[in-house]
Design goal:
The complex is a heterodimer of chains A (222) and B (265). In chain A, 20% of the residues lie in helices and 32% in strands. Chain A has 222 residues and is an alpha/beta fold. Chain A folds into 2 domains: 100 residues, Transcription Regulator spoIIAA; 104 residues, 3 Solenoid (Pectate Lyase C-like), CATH 2.160.20.70. A 6-stranded mixed β-sheet of chain A has the order 5-7-9-11-14-15, with no helix packed on it. In chain A, a hairpin with a 2-residue loop joins strand 14 and strand 15. The radius of gyration of chain A is 21 Å and the shape is globular. By secondary structure, chain B is an alpha/beta fold. In chain B, a hairpin with a 6-residue loop joins strand 3 and strand 4. Helix content of chain B is 41%, strand content 16%. Chain B has one domain: P-loop containing nucleotide triphosphate hydrolases (Rossmann fold). In chain B, helix 1 crosses helix 11. The longest helix of chain B is centred in the middle third of the chain and has 16 residues. The chains are: A alpha/beta (222), B alpha/beta (265). Chains A and B meet through loops of A and helix 7 of B.
Chain lengths: 222, 265
Amino acid sequence: MEKEFAHAVQVRAQRDGQFVFILDSSLPFQMILKYLEKRLEESNRFFRSAKIIIDLGLRPFRFDEVVTLRDLLKNHWQAHITELRLGHRFDSFFEWASKLIGIPIYQIPVQEKEPEPVIIKQTCRSGTRIEAPQDCVILGDVNPGAEIIAGRDIIVFGVLRGIAHAGAYGNRESKIWALSIEPSQLRIADLVAIPPRQDRSSHTKRYEIAEIRDDQIQVISF
Amino acid sequence: MPGTTIVITSGKGGVGKTTTVANLGTALAMRGRSVVLVDADIGLRNLDVVMGLENRIVYHVVDIIEGRCRIEQAMIRDRKINSLYLIPAAQTRDKDAIRPEDMKKLCDHLIETFDYVLVDCPAGIEQGFRNAIAGAHKALVVTTPEVSAIRDADRVIGLLEANLLKDIQLIINRVNQKMIRRGDMMSTEDICSLLSIPLIGVIPESEEVVISTNRGIPLVHEKKSSIAAAFRRIAGRLEGENIPIPSDNHEGGLLGKVKKLLWNA
């Protein structure tokens, strides 16, 4: 039972103090509600008067579910929903809106060209910060004290010694590639890992990939 | 032909910038060059003490920039070498007292009469650093074989490159060969591969440095010191001489030679 609950709602804290509640896409709403009640109970007063952003993720929009959530948070915790994010499923929202105004609503998908990868053709020295909307390629090393943040994958054609944050917007499929991953901090989506301090130069490796497996960041050497 | 302004910087404090400025400047002057040392560490001046000239300070660099004296009035000649001068920093002001443009103007004026202008940069990356690098054509980054110093040196090199100062060379100071052999200290190769700038010199660790600082006589005056020799070699390399840098694990001395003989036999 515990395992199923674990993913019901993912809670993330933002820099401005607001919380983002990301609702699981497959669990029935009752379970999500139960989990939330339990979580809020266990967290004592932590979420009292909090500002919360609800991210529906892949969940369909259901007017009554949203109202239930809003009331639960307001009545028990004096917490406010400051934003509702529709995520990927707009059709349920359009259905509800079209019922309200009595006109069918459709969205014509806009062909958005995927942003190109950001390519840095030199070593990133300490103090350098690179932000890329999708993929990022570094042709050189990433020195300790440098930070690379990407919406998707990070590829370092050199030694990664600094901080790399792949899938910074939540994409857990993102990976970090490097010819060598030395002890630094690895971040993929919402997970953080520190590689163990051991003599990893002992066996020859051609390249390494860090990815999420079993809910953990793992580094695989090739 | 106008001279060259070289800034000696590091990021981290206490790695040997001032010692390097004093000894390198003296070594260059001993080769017959005209050299002026400028202390840009306003508020925490040290170069005058290391050169043994602290009692002779009447005017300093802020006086020049604020127009209270001529440049010549602030220049203090070295006690032993005629072509070597010092412009000290102010002790009772701080780093906001001058701006980068002021420093650039001063350095550009000095290179009209001197072969070398060596600027002693303060630690850090704020106003003092920005002032010190403003007039420089060349930078020497000093680091010790220590993780924190190397991290700071890397940051500083990045800032220098961002300021379009591309002629940057590395000095590794306080190297302890015994520790390198034991694996307790990073080797020269490790450091160079991380910082990726050309190496211009390696200076061994020694007690002699503190002693010479206390006496106010730069080590380079001592004929027998290995550190003095290292600085003289750096001066030679700056002047274009092709002097190879001794690699790590080189065992000098009689014992070393005997060992080599035994192995080869």
